[in-house]
Specification:
alpha/beta; Aspartate Aminotransferase, domain 2; seven-stranded mixed beta sheet; 15 helices; binds pyridoxal-5'-phosphate
């Protein structure tokens, strides 16, 4: 059996860090809850292309790509050169920088309905700004959502990790179920300021769901916000609006736009966005920080030049179809690979064993093959055919092995690290509104 990597340096640093960094991560999806403590690496040192190297010097094929941002890959030359060139000129300035216009102009030429553009640093910044704008524009308070949109009060109030958020915030935000028009109809009304959602997570929109949603928003005078953190620059050049041919009013982007530099984008129709000129306050010191804008300009140009979304579809399809045929060949009913090829995940449902135990063992076994796996496949332009083949080879070895382990009932003996925690991403029935009857 292949050996597990040595993670001694990671464990030692963790022991020191845990006393001064609560949770030992700034991003939940990168922390020890998602990478089995005791076997998986904890701290990164560097990366190149599709590979990440931990502080013990182990190299892994990275299937998370920093939870989305690395659309082109680690240390992608054109983007790094753009950052270095800008570094020689300055990082942050006392006046707006001309790159703000250049990048905004590029976005308006690529993204449908992006008539006006503003920048910030995090995804939560722009989803929260979009929500505030929608509230001001409609002069209503109520928000309907159905996924994850960041750490700010308005959103986290609907989850069960809501300590520290005033009770009143919760009275204005409710959830609906993706792909379920009836659940939206139950909640939407003339009081609804905005409906915000990711156009797709891991289930394709069914039966014209997005179109119906668009029409309902029109009918009730509600602003439709697409959270395109994951779909932007991956699903299609112009994002989900282009891919599904649906118009939203406001769009929120981040992650893939600057290949790892911190930038987020709020854009949309000018009749709504222009409210930022006077009535709505959305300003932040580093919004026009130029290294990230230089990175975004270069990243977007590369994505357009090489049609990266098409590449991600092709590589993702090879991976997804390959995994599905391994599952079929070995008759493994507890496992599936779901999602759009540009972003897929392994779904686990077993009648006897908890999915998190199985996921933990899968992750552990992937480490033996030099693969950093967290259940998701977030590929980049640097993921080569060789990377896909190696991943499929690992799946073809690991899935039948775990199938046998489950058959023999000894999964706990095989797991050497801590059991993984659930991903913080509730999408159904977590704060739905009392049923409405439309007259
Ligand atoms: C769909 C979606 N929206 C918003 C966010 C929040 O972005 P950030 O963590 O940059 O604030 C995330 C983060 O993962 C996300 O996946």
């Amino acid at each position: 059996m292949l050996t597990l990597p040595s993670i001694q340096e990671s464990l030692e640093l963790y022991e020191k860090a845990r006393h001064i960094i609560p949770g030992v991560t700034q991003t939940l999806a990168k922390g020890v809850g998602q990478y089995s403590f005791g076997v998986a690496p904890i701290f990164a040192d560097k990366g190149k292309g599709s590979k990440i190297i931990d502080i013990d010097g182990n190299e892994y094929l990275d299937l998370s790509m920093a939870v989305g941002p690395l659309s082109l890959g680690y240390c992608y030359e054109a983007v790094d050169t753009a950052i270095k060139e800008q570094l020689l000129k300055g990082i942050t300035f006392s006046l707006p920088h001309s790159l703000e216009y250049e990048v905004a102009e590029l976005i308006t030429s690529i993204v449908p309905n992006a008539e006006m553009v503003r920048f910030s640093k995090t995804g939560a910044d722009v989803t929260s700004a979009a929500v505030r704008i929608a509230r001001a524009y409609t002069q209503r308070d109520e928000i309907l959502c159905c996924g994850y949109h960041g750490w700010h009060d308005w959103y986290i109030s609907v989850t069960d990790r809501d300590k520290g958020i005033p009770e009143t915030t919760k009275n204005h935000v409710f959830t609906f179920d993706y792909n379920n028009v009836d659940s939206l109809l139950d909640s939407i009304s003339e009081q609804t300021a905005a409906v915000i959602l990711e156009p797709i997570t891991f289930t394709e929109p069914k039966n014209g769901f997005l179109l119906e949603l668009r029409e309902l928003c029109h009918k009730f005078g509600t602003v439709l916000i697409f959270d395109e953190m994951w779909t932007g620059w991956r699903l299609a050049l112009g994002g989900a609006q282009e891919y599904y041919d649906i118009d939203a009013d406001l769009l929120c982007f981040s992650k893939a736009i600057a290949n790892g530099m911190p930038l987020s984008v709020l854009c949309g129709k000018s009749n709504i966005m222009s409210i930022l000129e006077k009535d709505v306050f959305f300003f932040t010191t580093f919004g026009g920080e130029a290294l990230s804008l230089a990175a975004a300009k270069s990243t977007m140009n590369e994505i357009r030049k090489y049609d990266v979304p098409d590449y991600l579809h092709q590589q993702g399809k090879k991976l997804q179809q390959g995994i599905k045929s391994i599952i079929q060949k070995h008759q493994i009913p507890w496992c599936d690979c779901i999602g759009n090829p540009t972003r897929t995940m392994i779904s686990i449902q077993h009648s006897t064993f908890p999915a998190l135990e199985i996921k933990t063992l899968l992750q552990q076994e992937f480490l033996r093959y030099g693969i950093l796996w967290n259940g998701f496949h977030t590929l980049s332009f640097s993921h080569s055919d060789q990377d896909i083949l190696h991943t499929l080879f690992a799946y073809s070895e690991i899935l039948p092995f775990i199938h046998d382990v489950l058959y023999n009932g000894n999964i706990r003996e095989m797991i050497h690290g801590k059991i993984l925690e659930p991903v913080f991403r509730k999408t159904t029935h977590f704060h739905s509104k009392p049923h409405l009857v439309h007259g």
